Amino acid sequence: MSSIVALNVAGARPNFMKLAPVHRAMTATGAIRPVFVHTGQHYDENLSRIFLDEFDLPDPDHDIGAGSGTHAEQTARVMLGIEPIIAEVRPDVVVVFGDVNSTIAAALVAAKMGVQVAHVEAGLRSFDRTMPEELNRLLTDALADLLFVPSRDAVANLAREGVPSDRVFLVGNVMIDTLDRLRPRAERSTILDELGVRDGGYIAATIHRPSNVDDLDSMTTTSTALSDLAAFAPTLLIVHPRTRKKLQDHGLERALEAAGVRLLDPLGYVDFLRLLMGAGAILTDSGGIQEEATVLGVPCITLRTTTERPVTIVEGTNRLVGTDPALAVAAVREGFESERLPRRPELWDGLAAERIVDVLVDRLGA
Ligand code: UD1
What we know:
- By secondary structure, the chain is α/β, with parallel strands linked by helices.
- The chain contains 17 helices and 13 strands.
- The protein has a seven-stranded parallel β-sheet, with helices on both faces.
């Protein structure tokens, strides 16, 4: 009989690949009954539903439908939505993932209701407080009772902030649990044929951070780099809705296409993983892709000045180039010509979720 009830909360695309292995491992133990809350921060079919299907997640037990809005509106709607769910379910623990607005919203409500909070992917710091995600990380970790960290740098960050060490657990990276599980399916994906590109012969790009797309200057810089790259090798830009809107607002969509950049709508996990696996180099500003590229050994050029995932630089294939388009183009070209070097940082072994569940059973079971 399950004795521990865990409320697992996810809302935005990068949450689902973190929640899925934890949810599955909870069910597999029999000792934890997982209840799945979807906050609805992301609601498009290809940012949400497709992942639930690919990861064999059940339909959410509760769907808050928070949707888009300003940070305050979105965070507040998740808070208002989750309070009655916590009151009704009375979980032993609320488990939150990553650094999105849904994460801090759920953690704050749970903590004030006296329910234990577990944070998966705790301790990451970019030290850039202009990033909304950095504020979400700092606040969620300040509230959490159990902090599950993916790498030793994160342990050190939490120690510096005075988090007692008996709350901190180095468990590895749940994103890699999902990558390992779905890689065989990605190998069977036909997406490269459908797109008419060959293994190692193209550049895959994703850009969506507010700092890179929200104003005309930064969007123009990014577009310049992409256009230059398209002259060098087939360049696929997989376009987040936020980026699509900004490209249209600034009239840059046509310019990119005219330069030969191919704009694709967001893909499911399996096809997207296949695109990463086959890329000669990746240009991105995403957090998770830096990690996936490290494990796949594909050179990853990151259009940011900081990263909360330094292990991907020290041990992996990641390189920060800031926002200088010339530097980005040179780094991508260099990466494209280089050999693949897959790396596995400590405990990025596909078993992080099992470790998390072991800790939860140990701490909450009695
Ligand atoms: C959010 C996360 C970010 C994460 C990203 C991954 C925060 C602060 N940010 O950013 O860390 O890397 O998700 O995708 O939580 N939109 C749609 N359909 C959707 C969702 C959004 O069209 O299903 C559009 C809306 O116009 C919305 C915009 O995209 O205003 C941005 O969405 P939002 O959830 O606010 O932030 P993301 O940029 O997706």
